[in-house]
Every structure is written in structure tokens, then in C-alpha cells.
Design goal:
The chain is an alpha/beta fold. The protein is built from 14 helices and twelve strands. Helix 3 runs parallel beside helix 10 and helix 13 packs across helix 14. The radius of gyration is 22 Å and the shape is globular. It starts with a helix and ends with a helix. The model has no long low-confidence stretch (mean pLDDT 97). The structure holds pyridoxal-5'-phosphate. Pyridoxal-5'-phosphate binds next to helix 4.
């Protein structure tokens, strides 16, 4: 399907709403029936009828069809956060006594679910270095039901060979789930490699304006219907019609925003690589990246998010650098219009800082939609502020 068709037309039944270009926000909690028989049918199959907006909603449906098409998936569900999409995907595929194999350091709240919540219900998780397929083979147990991936990871960008992991999982009857937030479906389509469920935080690039928290989960019709009828309806974490409408609006400009960010990111990387105060950069599409070949093979692009290791001997130098930035904001998240930075040392006590540990000197930069020079000049003046 043509990407312009998906973004501009798919699922937009304009004749049903006055030929309006922008779809209506159907801000209704419930839907009425003319006959008892219609109502009976809706109760029997809430997955195919508008009954109550914790289930289906017309505005959300427009968004679902577009997002599923972008993922090359049969269907998808949209949640009111990426974390909710992660939780529903995993919960739907484990029961007491099951085992999960997860890549090291997945998204924080995925880790909390694996470490704190699931063990209470008798589900255990083994973490592995996902850069080597043999680690998956070794970690799989007879009771493994889920392999959880995040490729690239959103701090060190470690990748997994998606086709190899999917093939292995299929041979063992294990469900594969991937967090695809870094790439979005524009730059990586995990379902094409045989991954069962792909999810992303739509808070990032899909929303694109730092004003909506949301998550997407895509997969086969059978799997998505099963999750809809249990976890989705039961946890009640579906997206609201208004937030769905914001995401439809975000989608209109997604490819061009990514294109622009891709170009600017390259310019920022070129600048950082030449800077005397930068020890290294970590970015999947940089030739220095250890899995560069794999990245080029399974991703159509990389953009926005990169990590650089700053040359510093004290935590104060890093703080001085960050505190001196005038336009790049210090904040979590990414994927919006604005450039952002997070120093790794903000997540630890300053007294624990050890300059010999490269990780402590990592800064994660998100390159936004500003003029490239505006971002580079801001970095330049901040580098000058510390010796
Ligand atoms: C932000 C993020 C999430 C969580 O999404 P929310 O929308 O914040 O709940 C999951 N995975 C990755 C990689 C993220 O960056």
C-alpha cells in the first residue's frame, strides 16, 4: 500500500461526515441500538461493533487501520501509553510457570514488569545479550513462551537479528514481541521478518509534537482479537478519541519529519565526531557502530536519537555542559519537534560518578526539527563553557 494513501486516505470515510478533510472526534462513551437483536449481536461480539468506547471507537478505528497498514500487520490496538501496549502484549502470552527471554536493558517499565510484577504470578525472565543469536538458543527453556526484543535499544542501540530470532522462535513455538519505538514502522517493519507482535511508543515520532502519550501494538488478526477481548478491555487502557485524533494528525507529517530529522542528525553527528571534547558517538547508522551491517540490512533508516560520550574527568563538567544549553531542552522522551538531552549521570548520585566508566559520561541527544545550525551552535557554546 502506498504510504501517502495510508496517511491521507485509508479508513477515512469522508462522505459519512460532511466531506470534512479532518476526521471527527467521536467523543462518545456509548453507542445506541435500534433493536434488541442489534444489541444482542453487539454484546456477543464487541470486537466488531461500536458499543462502548473502552472497546471500539470510530475515531480510534481510523487510526488503527492506518497504523496496522504502516506495520504491514493485519490489525493493531492503540493504547493510552507505550507501557500499556508492552504490558498487554506480554501478559497475553504468559501464564503462571512460564519463562520469558528478554534482551538486556529493555525499556525501564518493561524491566519493572519483568522484575517486579510478573514474578508475583510465577513468571520468570532471563536477560541476554541479544547481539548474538546463540545467546537466545542457550537461554530458551522448555517453558519459554515469549522472546522480548528491543531493536535498536534506546540508549546503546544494540540490535537483534530479527529474521534469525523469529525463525528460532517459530521452530520452538515461542511468541516474539519487539519494541520498535526507535525506528517506527517507517524505518523498520518487524512483521516482515516474522516477528509476531510489534509495538511502539506513539508518544515519540507518531505523535511527534510532545503533546500525547500513546502506544501501538500490531500483529495478526487472531492475536489482536484475543488481546482486545481480554487485556485491552479488562485493563481499560485504550486511547481516548481526542488523543487518537492527535495521532492521526501526527501521521500526516510523519515521513517528512523523519526525513528532515535524518538529515539534521547526520549533520549533528558530523559535528560531534570532529569535536575534541567528544570521545565517541553511538548511532546504528554510523560506520563505527559494531552492528552497522545488520542495521543497514534490516532498518531502512535511523534518526533523531544518538548517544555521545563526552570527554570529562568530573561530573561537574558534564553538568556545566548540560546546564549551559540554551535551546536543547533537558527532558525525557523524544520524537517531538524539540531537541532534547539526557545525561546518564542524571540517573545516579553525583558521588557515584566515575570518569573511567564510559557509561557515566554518556549523553543521549534527540535531534528535533530545528534548523541544524541552531542545534549545532547550541552544542558548540555549551562545549566552550567547560574546560
Ligand atoms: C517511551 C518508550 C516506551 C514507553 O512508551 P510510553 O508512551 O512512554 O508509555 C517504550 N519503549 C521505548 C523504547 C520508549 O522510548
Amino acid at each position: 500500500m502506498d504510504i501517502s494513501y495510508i496517511i491521507n486516505e485509508l479508513a477515512e470515510d469522508r462522505e459519512n461526515y460532511y466531506n470534512a478533510i479532518a476526521p471527527p472526534i467521536v467523543q462518545s462513551s456509548n453507542f445506541a441500538f435500534k433493536t434488541v437483536d442489534e444489541m444482542r449481536k453487539a454484546f456477543a461480539d464487541e470486537y466488531s461493533t461500536y458499543l462502548y468506547s473502552r472497546g471500539l471507537n470510530p475515531t480510534v478505528d481510523i487510526l488503527r487501520k492506518k497504523l496496522a497498514a504502516l506495520d504491514n500487520a493485519q490489525d493493531c490496538l492503540v493504547f493510552n501509553s507505550g507501557a500499556a501496549a508492552i504490558f498487554a502484549a506480554v501478559l497475553a502470552n504468559v501464564k503462571s510457570g512460564d519463562h520469558i527471554v528478554s534482551v538486556n536493558k529493555p525499556y525501564t517499565w518493561a524491566q519493572k514488569m519483568f522484575n517486579d510484577i510478573l514474578p508475583r504470578f510465577g513468571v520468570t525472565t532471563s536477560y541476554i545479550d541479544g547481539t548474538d543469536i546463540e545467546n537466545f538458543e542457550r537461554a530458551i527453556l522448555p517453558n519459554t513462551t515469549v522472546i522480548y526484543l528491543e531493536s535498536p535499544n534506546s540508549w546503546d542501540y544494540a540490535l537483534q537479528d530479527l529474521k534469525a530470532v523469529a525463525d528460532l522462535a517459530k521452530s520452538e513455538d515461542i511468541i516474539t514481541i519487539i519494541d520498535n519505538s526507535y525506528c517506527t514502522p517507517i524505518y523498520q517493519k518487524p512483521i516482515d521478518y516474522g516477528i509476531d507482535l510489534t509495538l511502539q511508543s506513539a508518544t515519540k515520532y507518531i505523535g511527534g509534537h510532545s503533546d500525547t502519550v500513546a502506544g501501538v501494538l500490531s500483529g495478526s488478526s487472531a492475536m489482536i482479537e484475543r488481546i482486545f477481548n481480554s487485556e485491552y478491555m479488562n485493563i481499560g487502557s485504550g486511547i481516548s478519541p481526542f488523543n487518537a485524533w492527535l495521532l492521526i494528525r501526527g501521521l500526516r507529517t510523519l515521513p517528512m519529519r523523519l526525513e528532515r530529522i535524518t538529515q539534521t542528525t547526520q549533520q549533528v553527528i558530523n559535528y560531534l565526531k570532529e569535536h575534541e571534547k567528544v570521545e565517541a558517538i553511538i548511532f546504528p547508522f554510523d560506520e563505527s557502530f559494531p552492528q552497522y551491517q545488520l542495521a543497514k540490512q534490516q532498518m531502512q533508516g535511523a534518526c533523531g536519537l544518538l548517544t555521545f560520550i563526552i570527554k570529562a574527568t568530573t561530573v561537574e563538567q558534564i553538568e556545566k555542559f548540560c546546564n549551559s544549553l540554551q535551546h536543547i531542552l533537558m527532558a525525557v522522551s523524544w520524537g517531538g519537534h524539540e531537541s532534547l538531552i539526557i545525561p546518564k549521570c542524571s540517573g545516579m548520585a553525583a558521588t557515584k560518578f566515575n570518569a573511567l566508566n564510559k557509561e557515566h559520561r554518556m549523553l543521549r541527544l534527540y535531534v528535533g526539527l530545528e534548523e541544524p545550525d541552531y542545534i549545532i551552535k547550541d552544542l558548540a557554546q555549551a562545549f566552550e563553557k567547560y574546560e
